[in-house]
Design a protein that fits this description.
The structure holds 2 protein chains of 2 kinds. Chain A has one helix spanning about 1-20, and strands at about 30-35, 35-40, 45-55, 60-65, 65-70, 80-85, 90-95, 105, 115-125, 135-140. By secondary structure, chain A is mainly beta. Chain B has one domain (about 5-415). Helix content of chain B is about 65%, strand content about 0%. Chain B has helices at about 5-25, 35-40, 40-50, 55-60, 90-105, 115-140, 145-160, 165-170, 175-195, 200-215, 225-230, 235-260, 270-275, 285-290, 295, 300-310, 315-335, 355-370, 370-395, 410-415, and strands spanning about 75, 80. In chain B, strand 1 and strand 2 (about 80) form a beta hairpin. The longest helix of chain B has 27 residues, at about 115-140. The model of chain B has no long low-confidence stretch (mean pLDDT about 95). The chains are: A mainly beta, B mainly alpha.
Amino acid sequence: MRRILHALALITLAGGAWYLYDPPWVAGVTSGLRDWEEDPPGTRFRWTNGHGSFYVPSDVGELTLPMRAVFASSDGKPVRVALSVDGRWLTNIDLLNPAEWTYPRVPLPRRTSRRRYRRIDVRVSRVTGFYNLGVELGEAQFPQ
Amino acid sequence: MPTSKQFLWLVALAALTAYVAIYARSLASAPIRSDGYSYYVYLPAWFIHHDPTLQAVPDDCCGGSFPAFTSIVRWPGTKQWVDPHPIGVAILTLPLFALAQLLTWWTNLPPDGFSLYYQHAAGLSGLAAFLLGLWFLRRLLARWFRDGVVLATLATITLGTNLFHYGTFDSAFSHAFSFALIAALLDVTDRWWREPDWIASLQLAVVAALLFLVRHPNIVYLIAVPLWNPSGVWARRTTLLRIAAVSALCVSPQLLIYYRATGHWFVSVYGQLGRFDFRSPRLAAVLFGTQKGLFFWSPALLLAVAGFFISDPLALRVRTAALLCFAFTAYVIASWSDWQFGGSFGHRGFTDSLAIAAVFIAGLFHWTAPRPRARLAVGAAAAAACVLTCAQMVQYWTGVLPIADTTWTQYRELFLRFR
């Protein structure tokens, strides 16, 4: 009986590990992002904190990520947004005009794992206000 | 009727179900919030960013400064961050944090210390502390009372106070951890006075240190150790000194953190967050007021007041320490500018010491056991108080009750309304 219980526990552990390596719900996981809002013209966006993360399908080769600073940096420098994929730095984007949307196109490097989704990290050089706001991020666009 | 042991399993099941419901139905935002943030923040700073100064955390999330709600402040002289909340909760959260770290890497979630697995590592650590506290409490009471009394006491303290709320809804706060440690202190103290072997002595030292590390004012509860058996203290003075030395060693990392950040071995930043006015404490409001009154929101605790006057053998060992701790806690809370302790269900300043209240409730139940009329009256009162508290807890969870400043008019209008 004890052997059977041990075997069942081992199978459950292995099954759990296999499932959690690439779970489908990762597509909807975010960290450091507020809820979706809508600009008056109908542009959907969400505020980041200083560091926000979200996921895109792993077969995406290029990403367009609309962003807007809204508030300038207190030091007068452009707000800098650093993008990385699965923890690897990709590029820095300087938002020169805080009021304007910027649409940077970012090629993603070849994937190195068999996961279905890749993590995009957004790090902002300054945050503002009580709610710790970074930049507004629009919906990521990529060729299907 | 279940046994008290079976009751613990039922509470565990109910608490897990409630925890899942709270987050699945978005009744609360992520577990690491409000005070829970500043208790937890040491873990990402130490183990993800390898930065004991904490600076790397706001650098990563918040443009270099902690948000105001965290109450983490820069020390005026050194400009280093000082957290108003000590490291104890973080230490007790460490096992599940380590598991979260492993799973985060495995699933490729954001390794920022605040993504999904980390959030629930913190939340479930508090839930586990709540259950562990009940386990210690049961073990103590089972040595002094028959199982029916233990069962009734555990049910009353779990369902008739805000303990279940702080074990589930706000589980990343310090209260579930303090409750567990004070329950452990009573249990270990009882065993240590019966048989002062080195294991019990070491347990006492570690529990005493953790109590201080979770919340510094908790140190007042340590007077329960000598007052358990005052006439025996002199004979055990050497062992007590050794226990104190081990405890001091265990708390030294906290003192080092303070020294490194401020140049002082012990500091409190509460002076920058509010003020004490010891000349006009708001005792009536703290104990009976509609805003956060202890007995108003947890009327089951009136049973502990009645039990206080019963000369039960266990209650006699705890009585003096309980009185001193309660008077100290109530006076300090009532003198603080934010005496409501912000948003909370009931008064969370007393949740930590509910294990002590349980001793007196058990004494009362034990006293009523051979007295049918008293048993009926006390049992009915306890059941009614538990039903009322649970109903109000659900009202709080669903946003029907305000999180603070409840007035009598509001309370009457909202009484047992669920929409």
